[in-house]
Amino acid sequence: MSAQVRLSYMFLALLLAGCFALAAGSATAAEPRREVLKLGHSRLLKLPVPAGRVSVGRAQVADVVMVTPRQLYLNALGVGTTNVSLWDQQDRLLEVFEVVVIRDLTSLKEQLYQILPNEPVEVRGLAGSVVLSGQVSSLEAKKRAEALTEAYAPKQTTSLLEVGGNQQVQLQVRFAEVSRKVTKRMNINLRILNPLTGDFLYTMLGSLITPQTDGTTLLSDKVNAMGGFHSGQTQISAFLDILKENGLAKILAEPNLVAASGQQADFLAGGEFPIPVPQRENITITYKKFGVQLGFLPEVRPGKRIRLTVAPEVSELDWSTAVVVQGFTVPGLTTRKAKTQLELADGQSFAIAGLFRDDITQSVSKFPVLGDLPILGALFRSTEFKKNKTELLIVVTPRIVRPGQERLGPNPVTTFSDPDDFAFFMLGKLATPKAASPQGPPLSPQELEGRFGHDLAW
Fold it and tell me: Looking at residue 131, what is its pLDDT?
């Protein structure tokens, strides 16, 4: 055999060895087989050669039963991934394949479609969790989809749902507080004086009069009637404080708030007062709100209905219950508040009434025995009666609103013109509303004037 032929055989042998090595490497790099099962389902696998032994990596994910040496029964037990190893009857490793167990989302999708037929909710599985995505029409639909998915996969639900559409609520609130006050008071002071003998008698219940050292009498501001007469040299005078007073007050606040569906909104028309809090080495200050307060949480439901949680509160400072903390006087609060949840249609109103406060105070000061006489006893006693009755009415109207492009109305600040010095000091005029622009024919030659002068075009 010639040298040229031997070289040809050697080259052919090397070429065949390289092909076999490449084929072996490709077979080694090939990915293992994967068997994907739905949770609760099972599958029967047929083997090309008889198997003698089988092993499962994670028994909580899948259960493997060898029915015959050539048949395996896979049963999906839990969501996850595991490996299954097979050996032949001579205990040589035949194959290692992967078993992936996923959730069966078909039943969940069917339930979502039946309960929310008009909501495009997308359901996906990711690493054992259930992912919701899409855009629903209301917050109520979002909560229903999440609750149903949570029941299907407890603590393994991820929601990416968005609420679209018109989901803003305007709350119109009317606070009306009517306060009726009734005061009745009667005080009588007597003065009997004889300048010659120096004899005198004073009654000073209610402090209407104050005797002076020079014989005169100082009257208080409470005296609204007085009279007297002489009997010889004796002067007899009476000083009266008789009052009957009726008062009526009305306090009205009309806040309007806009909030997105599912978001809290708060309103306060009042103020805050400081409260000292003693510490070990110093004193810190906290603030307490008072006045007309409102907190509401709207939720837009299907059919343009609004579920509303509203908490109105009206409070005022009460100095009669004040306390002193390290020299600081802290007043108390008189508070009336309510909290309720209800469901209304767009534009409907509801009222909260019956928040009454009724205070009655009566005091009597009198001389012993003399003040108890049937008729003359009025001269020797002082009586006062006070009654304060307050009723609070709250009317709430929620509306579904959307941003608009309408022009703003006139600014209330710019619709008034300030007076000049002469009109203010000499004529006593204050700011007056500006005259509206004429809409009819001109009433004076000045109204005919338009643009004049040089108009340069650049």
Answer: 86
